[in-house]
Specification:
The structure holds two protein chains of two kinds. By secondary structure, chain A is of the alpha+beta class. Chain A has three helices and five strands; from the N terminus they run E-H-E-H-H-E-E-E. Chain A has one domain: Beta-grasp domain (Ubiquitin-like (UB roll)). Chain B has an eight-stranded mixed sheet with strand order 3-2-1-4-5-6-7-8, with helices on both faces. Chain B is globular, with a radius of gyration of 18 Å. The chains are: A alpha+beta, B alpha/beta. At the A-B interface, helix 1 of A face strand 5, strand 6, strand 7 and strand 8 of B. The complex binds zinc ion.
Chain lengths: 83, 251
């Protein structure tokens, strides 16, 4: 299993704090996990198509091509630029 | 470094009492030159904390005037200050709080022309701006001048904090986090809203990092701190320097 967590405004926007996906070929990268989440939740499409969404695997910031394996924790959170 | 006066000894006694600060740390704060970019919701508390703590030379930059919708969170300003330049008003208030420090007002937006002049003068830049263009520019200037940069940002209930230290060859930069301008987020406080205490928490974190850095205490680069004001939780993420980064990468 892969644990997927949503932080900050993203959690509110999706109304979801965390979920699990099965580890496998369709979830072996950040980009594929995003794709799967949108397939399962079409209403999330706009959120996950936002290129500035930040992602981390096991608390390390990574980009979309980063590999993901069983037991990993994947985090998504929004960028913040205001002040 | 000249010794602290009796008045300074008394005024800063609770800071000097801390082993990590001491007299040497207080002298370092007095000698420090810090540029704060943006005198809005983050810049207000940051400038107030650094001025009160005895940071000896502050450069405050903001081209905007005080507006009534600023007052719930930009706590240095009052109704009498409406339509006056933010950096000007902040300087006046801070000099009342601490007449012993030097404050220089930059009453315009720092741009690529004006920026380098100030980067040559200062030891540290604190990014309290409200837009991605200024954030990229400050990052670029700090890399070029090898000046550390403390980035803070807040919108809604969320905040982020990152220290970039170009003196450290392994330090990631702001553009390692947001690599390309097309990836740059557009959200800001005008479209999402913001609460004063969320800004205060991030500004407090920026001020704390600044004081630790200026007093030669340990500070972490490559660490993005994320604050969630609804759950009151902080989370830390490791950020790595990107070889492909357009700002700090090898190419
Ligand atoms: Zn970089």
């Amino acid at each position: 299993m892969i644990k997927v967590v949503f932080f900050a405004a993203l959690r509110e926007q999706l109304n979801c704090a965390e979920l699990e996906v099965n580890a496998g070929e369709n979830t072996d990268s950040i980009a594929k996990i995003k794709q799967l989440l949108v397939e399962q939740n079409p209403q999330w499409q706009e959120t996950f198509n936002n290129a500035s969404l930040l992602s981390a695997v096991n608390h390390e910031m990574v980009d979309g091509s980063h590999p993901v394996k069983s037991g990993d924790e994947v985090a998504f959170f929004p960028p913040v630029t205001g002040g | 470094m000249s010794v602290l006066s009796n008045n300074e000894q008394l005024r800063y006694s609770r800071q000097i009492m801390l082993n990590q600060i001491g007299e040497a740390g207080q002298q370092a704060l007095r000698n420090a030159k810090v540029l704060i970019v943006g005198m809005g919701g983050l810049g207000n508390p940051t400038a107030l904390y650094l001025a009160s703590a005895g940071v000896g030379n502050l450069y405050l930059a903001d081209g905007d005037n005080v507006e009534i919708s600023n007052l719930p969170r930009q706590i240095l300003f009052s109704e009498d200050d409406l339509q006056n330049n933010k950096a000007d008003v902040a300087s006046e208030k801070l000099q009342q709080q601490n007449p012993e420090i030097n404050i220089e007002v930059i009453d315009e937006m720092l741009d690529a022309e004006l920026g380098p002049y100030y980067l040559d003068l200062v030891d540290l830049v604190i990014d309290c701006s409200d837009n991605i263009a200024t954030r990229y520019l400050m990052n670029q200037l700090c890399l070029e001048h090898k000046v550390p940069l403390i980035v803070g940002a807040a919108t809604g209930f969320d905040g982020q904090h990152l220290l970039v230290d170009p003196r450290n060859p392994d330090s990631a930069c702001y553009q390692c986090l947001f690599p390309a301008s097309e990836k740059a987020p557009v959200n800001n406080c005008q479209t999402i809203g913001i609460l004063g205490p969320v800004l205060a928490i991030i500004a407090g974190m920026q001020s704390l990092t600044a004081i630790k850095l200026l007093t030669a205490n340990k500070v972490a680069v490559n660490q993005l701190s994320l604050f969630d004001g609804l759950s009151n939780q902080w989370r830390q993420f490791t950020l790595n320097k990107q070889a492909t980064c357009p700002a700090c990468g090898q190419a």
